[in-house]
Amino acid sequence: MRYCPSCLEEYEDANQTCAECKESLVAEEELAKRPEFHRVREEDPRDFAVAGPAEDPFEADAFTAALDEAGIPVMARMRRTGAVDAITDPVAHAWWEVLVPVDQVQKAIEIIARRKEELKAAEADSEKAAEEEEAEGESKTNG
């Protein structure tokens, strides 16, 4: 079997490209070498559901890491492949969706909300530090 490294779809060995993401497929052996693909194991019989969206790969990684730490099986799936999707699908979707077992969705939603607040706080701190640094630089050149 071959797999898409972005959406984790499974394909027959004859296929070379993911029909959804247009990514080159990787062999099962290659997939086994990548730790990010061990979050959800094939033998997991549970149904997965969307626990929340992520706007970019960084946010998706932050959410999946937080859920991993909480012991919740998780995977992030890319929803769009590029700007063309905005033309072909006029409904705006998040770039990524975070999936967890159906029975753990509520707990995952809470964890994602907390992590999102942490990311916003860190972003605000970074912006403030950048503004202070810029103001300090301006005062040195004017002084």
Give a structural overview.
- It is a single chain.
- With 143 residues, the protein is α+β, with helices and mostly antiparallel strands.
- The protein has two domains: 1-38, no CATH class; 39-142, no CATH class.
- It is 43% helix and 16% strand.
- The chain is built from four helices and six strands; from the N terminus they run βββαβαβαβα.
- It has helices at residues 28-33, 57-69, 84-88, 105-142, and strands at 2-3, 10-11, 26-27, 48-54, 75-78, 96-101.
- The strands form two sheets. Strands 2-1-3 form a three-stranded antiparallel sheet.
- A hairpin with a 6-residue loop joins strand 1 (2-3) and strand 2.
- Helix 2 (57-69) packs across helix 4.
- It is extended and about 65 Å long.
- The mean pLDDT is 81.
| Biggest sheet record | 3 strands, antiparallel
The count of domains is 2
Strand content: 15-25%
Order of helices and strands: EEEHEHEHEH
Return Rg in Å. 19 Å
**Overall geometry:** extended
Report how far the terminal alpha carbons are from each other.
67 Å
Uncertain segments: none
Structural class: alpha+beta
The number of distinct helices, counting runs of at least 4 residues, comes to 4
Please estimate the helix content. Answer: 40-55%
Q: Looking across the biggest beta sheet, what order are the strands in?
A: 2-1-3
Overall average pLDDT: 81
The number of strands is 6
